[in-house]
Amino acid sequence: MVDHGVDGENAEVAPRRGIWTRDFGLFFTARGVAKLGDSMLPVALAAGLLQHGYGAGAVGLAMASSVACFAGLVIFGGVLADRFNTRLLMTGADLARLVTQSLAAVMFFTGHVVLWQICVIGAINGSAAAIFQPGVAGTVPRLASDVQAANGAIRVAESGAQLAGPAVAGVLVALASPGLVFAAHAGTYGLSALCLLLLHLPPVVHVTGKTRTRGAFRSELVEGWREFRSRRWLWGVISIWCVLMIGAWGPAVPLVAVHVTQEYGSGVYGLVNSALGAGTVIGGVLALRVRPRRMLRAGALALFGFALFPATAGAGLGVPWMMAGCAVAGACMSFWGVMWATSVQTQVPREVLNRIHAYEVAGSIAMQPVGQALAGPAAATFGTQQVLLAGGVVTLMVATTMISVPAIRSLVRADAQPPHAPFPVPMPEPRQEQRQRGHGRAETH
Q1: How far is Cα 339 from Cα 298, in angstroms, rounded to an integer?
Q2: What is the pTM of this model?
Q3: What pLDDT does residue 204 have?
Q4: Cβ(287)–Cβ(341) below 8 Å
Q5: Distances (CA, A) of 177 to 50, 57, 266
Q6: Helices 384-404 and 368-382: crossing angle, nearest 10°?
Q7: What are the C-alpha distances in Å from 259 to residues 4, 47, 56, 325?
Q8: CB-CB contact of 413 with 196 (8 Å)
């Protein structure tokens, strides 16, 4: 667990600042509902493919097909998000996934389940997510002046959904079929799209105070890369994170799903995932309150606890111990996630934030499909439990490496920097001033 001691000399309790507006409430709902569906998907995939004669390798490939397309296309989605109407791009991506998950539901309802078709659906979903995700980073600071509080609140909503989703999916699989889970997943995308359609966003303002203008697509792509590589703390974290994706997170997701489902059933796997979700709720609440001066150092210290996610399953400690380990791991990963997201959103100018977020997302998960695809062969060669234990060791090495890099551990939060700090981030205009102009809340680029 992470408390005020993670960065003890500078951590403080967060002051009360208002973030709750109609628009932030809509975005908050959209993210929570979408996460509910996403957290149900691993249960449906694992149970559904196992029912139709497929094994761990097939589950890993099905998951990897989505992640691979997402990682390969998200940088282009970042440019699109900076050039066009972010809200409409995100809505269109949700509607596309509504269609694909509805098709998957029909396949599982009818019993016509072919692995390559499931992988194609996953690839389309990943492509849609690549259009959707870059806009998330740019939307949060446009809706809330207290970015850390907004990220913490969204993390709590997503964590609550992650807590409920797997358990609900396990019950639906047991009572009906995996097809019902896919149908419910499609419905969550529909509700998310509706919330985004009702959302109003203030304009993106350049640090000079002027509305940004668009350049050529290629030049904006290059500009995003230049901004990304100019920040050593940013690409340093991403480089180290790739190791975690290959050695721990990538293999752990499908292997834990298959191991627990085969040993205890889909209902128990739902409970284990719910324990992970419960931990992320705790971590999100903690991140709402604790404000370490060096956010990445505090987050990296929390990552040590995430090693319990693969390690408890690999050690064969039994269901209660797996649930306890997942709860601690979820809290630590959630705390890290808020520290990381807030650092990116506050240290980077808003006019390039979507592109830089796309680069950091692409880099952070680029190796995840590699780890997922290798999960089956590695488990067949070394054994599932041995691979999961190795994932725990890799996680400890990753956290240690992050703390050892000066640019990462020494980064000071943006609101604690002196006035001459580089890359100032403009605060959103007060709502009353926006209303006086009559068009301040309309999204323009």
Answers
A1: 8
A2: 0.68
A3: 61
A4: no
A5: 12, 21, 11
A6: 140
A7: 36, 11, 9, 16
A8: no
CB 269 within 8 A of CB 260: yes
Query: How many C-beta neighbours within 10 Å does residue 192 have?
Result: 29
Query: Across the chain, what does the average pLDDT equal?
Result: 80
CA distance 47 to 41: 10
Taking each helix axis from N to C end, the angle separating 353-365 and 56-83, rounded to the nearest 10 degrees, works out to 170
85: closest CA among 34, 126, 36, 142?
142
Number of Cβ within a 10 Å radius of residue 349: 16
pLDDT tens profile 34-71: 888 888 888 888 888 888 778 777 887 887 788 788 87
Is the pLDDT confidence value at 302 over 90?
yes
pLDDT at 242 over 50: yes
Beta-bridged to residue 13, according to DSSP, are: 290
User: What does the alpha-carbon distance between residue 132 and residue 127 come to, in Å, rounded to a whole number?
Assistant: 9
Q: Calculate mean pLDDT across residues 167-182.
A: 82
**Contact, 296 vs 308, CB < 8 A?**
no
Tell me how crowded residue 303 is: count the other CB atoms within 10 A of its CB: 23
Residue 199 backbone zone (phi > 0: left; psi -120 to 50: alpha; other: beta): beta
Q: Closest by alpha carbon to 132, among 174, 189, 170, 181?
A: 189
Of 265, 282, 254, 285, the residue nearest 391 (C-alpha): 254
Gap between the Cα atoms of 23 and 20, Å rounded: 8
Q: What is the pLDDT of residues 200-211, one digit of tens each?
A: 877 665 544 444
What number of helices (H) and strands (E) belong to the chain? 19, 0
Residue 7, Cβ density class (10 Å: 0-12 exposed, 13-18 middle, ≥19 buried): buried
Q: What are 113-165's pLDDT values in tens digits?
A: 888 888 999 899 989 988 898 888 788 888 887 888 888 888 888 877 777 77
What is the 8-class DSSP label of residue 3? -
Contact 298, 19 (CB under 8 A): no
Give φ, ψ of 172 to 5 degrees: -65, -40
State residue 18's pLDDT score: 63
CA distance linking residue 202 with residue 85, whole number of Å: 11
Helix axis angle, 319-347 to 147-175, nearest 10° = 140
- Residue 218: is its pLDDT beyond 60? yes
Of 206, 160, 179, 166, the C-alpha closest to 28 is 160
